[in-house]
Specification:
alpha+beta, Muramoyl-pentapeptide Carboxypeptidase, domain 2, five-stranded antiparallel β-sheet, 5 strands, about 15% strand
Length: about 140
């Protein structure tokens, strides 16, 4: 089971966008922890089960193979304040979302259906169906 936090596990086109995002957050005085980059299908299925067939809150609507994490183009984050992850400060999340978008990333906090504040991705215009069909971002 793989749930990486390494930026090097992101697609080569996504890595510099993630690094720029982290730098811009730091310049704004926001410490960020990357909580997930690449996830394998087994981990994604375990996350999907959470709040459905296993204890916890529902954290994703994506089953294995239906998440951009499996295609190395998405990462999840959390702001850290005084050494602790902060999940419920909407102002900080809005700042982070704005920074991510200014770096060329899509912020899932803007999604109308099941917004995910921690999630950022760069798909280069490719859809999930494209990735499932074997297409990848050009290098």
């Amino acid at each position: 089971m793989i749930n990486s936090r390494n930026i090097s596990d992101l697609h080569i086109k996504v890595q510099p966008l993630c690094e720029k995002f982290l730098d811009e957050c730091k310049k704004s005085g926001i410490d960020i922890l990357i909580t997930s980059t690449y996830r394998d299908i087994e981990i994604q299925n375990a996350l999907y089960a959470q709040g459905r067939t296993t204890p916890g809150h529902i954290v994703t609507n994506a089953r294995g193979g239906q998440s951009f994490h499996q295609y190395h183009v998405a990462f999840d984050t959390v702001p850290v304040i005084c050494g602790k992850p902060v999940w419920d400060d909407m102002q900080v999340w809005l700042s982070i979302g704005h920074i991510g978008k200014s770096c060329g990333l899509e912020w899932a906090g803007d999604w109308k259906s099941f917004p995910e504040k921690p999630h950022f991705q760069f798909t280069g215009g490719l859809s999930l169906r494209d990735f499932q069909a074997g297409k990848t971002l050009p290098e």
